[in-house]
Amino acid sequence: MIQSVDVEAKVVASRVRVRYAETDQMGVVYHANYLVWFEVGRVEFMRARGLSYKQMELEESCLIAVVEANAKFRAPARYDDELVVETELTSLRGAVIRFEYRVVRESDGVLLCEGHTVHVVVGRDMKKRRMPERYAEMLYPQTMVDLQAR
User: How buried is 16 (Cβ within 10 angstroms: 0-12 exposed, 13-18 middle, 19+ buried)?
Assistant: First the structure.
């Protein structure tokens, strides 16, 4: 179950519960699952801002490709833990977008993982292009200030 909260804040929180299939032989969450949860957070962040990624793809033929991913693991998550994925868009300039994430265990507030992803906006031809202005404004109002500063 995924639930977004605090949609007006700079950080959007999404909840996920660790499934047994997401754990490894040691009984802890397999590291690659954090990247999946980063995506959950990113999509929920966009949704909380009123942006449908699917609609953007259809209307603008605009895609967002991951070009960098980083995760620093602090403590293990285990089966059935309820986690909060905190997502913040920290930069959007032209075609480049950066999100930062914190994954926290809800029961005790322990920081389990933190990281970031960098994305490049591309067209269906996979060529870099600027984020359409209306979507940039929905995602990151600071973008309009950045655009005017140039």
Answer: buried
Assign residue 101 the CATH number of its domain.
3.10.129.10
Q: Which two tokens stand for residue 144?
A: 């309009």
Residue 103: band (very low, low, confident or very high) from pLDDT cuts 50, 70, 90: very high
Task: Find the angle CA(44)-CA(147)-CA(55) to the nearest 5 degrees.
Answer: 35
Q: Average pLDDT for residues 60-74, to the nearest whole number?
A: 96
pTM for the predicted model, two decimal places: 0.86
Q: Which residues span the domain enclosing 77?
A: 3-149
Catalytic residue chosen out of the listed positions 24, 108, 125, 146: 24
Query: Looking at the 3D structure of the chain, how many domains does it have?
Result: 1
125 in catalytic set: no
